[in-house]
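Need a sequence for this fold. Nothing fancy.
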């Protein structure tokens, strides 16, 4: 989670969107107004597009009969190959944990600014409260407050950033993250099977997997057509697990076939994003706030990554070089959110 030359944006009311919202500004501060070419499309043609993001029923993979299992494995194969994004239902995580993590997260964001600033992102890090991926004083900011923490392995944790309020925050996050970690391990097993590989291939390859969480709070904005909740980007993790608060308006959009497609979240489902694959962004709304909790699950920083020999031959040659995952992770967090350009790090 460590990086360098990052400018933390969390100090002072002017850069905190919740505080801005309280002042009910008649205009959006220039620091948040995106250039014309970077503004979201908020017309009705976008919002009415059908959303065909695949849905995977985990219970059919874990408990289904052979026919159901094979059918769902094929669905998973299609979801990974053609989308890189899908929703998982019947994931096995206790829904009371969903409610608990949403409550303590919302309670944290509702704390006074002075209390949240005790956990501000410090220069050279991407953990804490504020906005990450900010590298210059004139860089445009997203309409979002973030709180990010490293979880596993123990060495990436910063105990000073774990809040004392709300009192239930730390224990709830520990329980939630433990269950999400188990879910990621199970999902990777089925992704391996969908590729015709041994189920434990990724678990063995990853070593002690890195896990981090980022909580995003998007307050309403009087001019959502001018701002971006989260700039377009692709993730640098092996699996990203997104939990969205039930009843929240759609905010996540994915770039599919050069069209931004909104993802209508299924209640109590998890939205999954695999690898550094599909570009996505978040938009905000004029009257409603939105909360999301994102878990990033990735290989150990110590391992070397490269194309798997099972999928390389004279007809399908390597497009990416082998590299140390820690080097890639450092490259990812020391660059702006900029679509899929970070993947150029390893491109041959």
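Here you go.
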């Amino acid at each position: 989670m460590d990086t360098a030359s990052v400018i933390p944006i969390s100090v002072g009311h002017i850069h905190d969107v919740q505080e801005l919202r309280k002042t009910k500004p008649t205009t959006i501060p220039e620091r948040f107004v995106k250039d014309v070419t970077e503004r979201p499309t908020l017309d009705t043609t976008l919002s009415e597009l059908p959303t065909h993001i695949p849905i995977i029923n985990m219970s059919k993979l874990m408990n289904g009969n052979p026919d159901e299992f094979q059918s769902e494995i094929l669905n998973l194969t299609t979801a990974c190959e053609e989308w890189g994004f899908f929703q998982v239902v019947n994931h096995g995580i206790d829904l009371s944990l969903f409610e608990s993590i949403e409550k303590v997260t919302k309670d944290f964001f509702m704390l006074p600014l002075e209390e949240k600033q005790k956990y501000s992102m410090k220069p050279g890090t991407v953990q804490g409260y504020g906005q990450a991926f900010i590298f210059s004083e004139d860089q445009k900011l997203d309409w979002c407050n973030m709180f990010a923490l490293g979880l596993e392995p123990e060495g990436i944790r910063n105990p000073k950033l774990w809040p004392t309020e709300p009192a239930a925050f730390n224990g709830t996050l520990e329980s939630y993250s433990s269950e999400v970690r188990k879910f990621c391990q199970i999902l990777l097993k089925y992704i391996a099977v969908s590729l015709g590989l041994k189920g434990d291939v990724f678990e063995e390859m990853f070593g002690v997997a890195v896990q981090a969480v980022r909580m995003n709070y998007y307050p309403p904005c009087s001019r959502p057509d001018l701002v971006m909740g989260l700039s377009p980007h692709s993730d640098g993790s092996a699996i990203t697990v997104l939990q969205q608060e039930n009843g929240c308006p759609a905010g996540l959009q994915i770039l599919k076939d050069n069209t931004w497609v909104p993802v209508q979240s299924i209640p109590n489902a998890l939205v999954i994003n695999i690898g550094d694959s599909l570009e996505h962004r978040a938009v905000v709304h004029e009257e409603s706030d939105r909360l999301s909790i994102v878990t990033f699950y990735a290989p150990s920083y110590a391992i070397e990554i490269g194309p798997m020999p099972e999928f390389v031959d004279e007809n399908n040659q390597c497009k990416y070089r082998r590299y140390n995952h820690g080097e890639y992770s450092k490259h990812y967090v020391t660059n702006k959110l900029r679509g899929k350009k970070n993947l150029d790090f390893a491109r041959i």
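For context: The first strand starts at residue 55 and ends at 57.
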